[in-house]
Amino acid sequence: MAFRIYTKTGDKGETALFGGRRVPKSNLRVDAYGTVDELNSFIGLLRDSLENQHVREILALTQHRLFTLGAHLASDPAKHPPTPDLLPEDIQLLENEMDTMDGQLPPLKHFILPGGHPTVSICHVCRTVCRRAERLTVALTQSGEPVDDLALQYLNRLSDYFFMLARFLAKELGAEEVVWKTR
Asked: Which domains does the chain have, with CATH numbers?
C-alpha cells in the first residue's frame, strides 16, 4: 500500500505529537512548531529569490536546523523528546554572519520600515515570523513545558540575523532603506 498524506485522524481538530499523545490543534506546542514550519517555508522563498550563493548556503543550513527544532517542539516531552540538532556553534555562525554584514553597512541611525525591494521584504517577513515562533516557544516554556535552551537562543539570534540580512541585501541589491518618519 502506498503512503497517503491524509490520515483523517485530524478531522476533529486533534493531532498527534511525536510519541503518540493526541492534543488539540490549538495546543501551544502545535502553534510553536507550526510557526517554525511557517518560518522554514518563508526561508525557502527567500532562498529561492537570491543569487548570493553564500547567503543561500547559510539559509539552507538554517532550514535544516529549524526542521529539527520543529521536531523537538513536536515531540511529547513525556516520551523523552529528541534534543534539537542545535549546537552553540550554530548560534555563533549567525553572530559571525551578522558581524560580517554589519561591517559592510553604514551605521543604523533611524528605524527602517520593511520594504524597498521584494527580497528585502521577504527578509522582514522571515524576521517577524521568527519573532512569533520565539514568543510562542517562550510561552511554551512559561507554561511549564520543557524546551531546550539553545532553541530559544537560536530563534532569538535568527530574528536578529534576518534584520541584518535585510539591510545587507538592500545594499547588495541597490535598494534604498525605507526610513520611518513621524508626521
From this structure: 23-75+112-176 (1.20.1200.10)
pLDDT means per 10 residues, the chain with 183 residues, are 61 66 75 95 98 97 95 82 80 98 93 94 98 97 91 97 97 92 88
Buried b (16+ CB within 10 A) or exposed e, 147-182: bbebbebbbbbbbebbbbbbbbbbebeebebbeeee
The C-alpha atoms of residue 59 and residue 64 are separated, in whole angstroms, by 9
Q: How many helices (H) and strands (E) does the chain have?
A: 5, 4
| Predicted local distance difference test score (pLDDT) of residue 35 | 97
Measured between alpha carbons, how far is 169 from 67 in angstroms, rounded to an integer?
Answer: 25
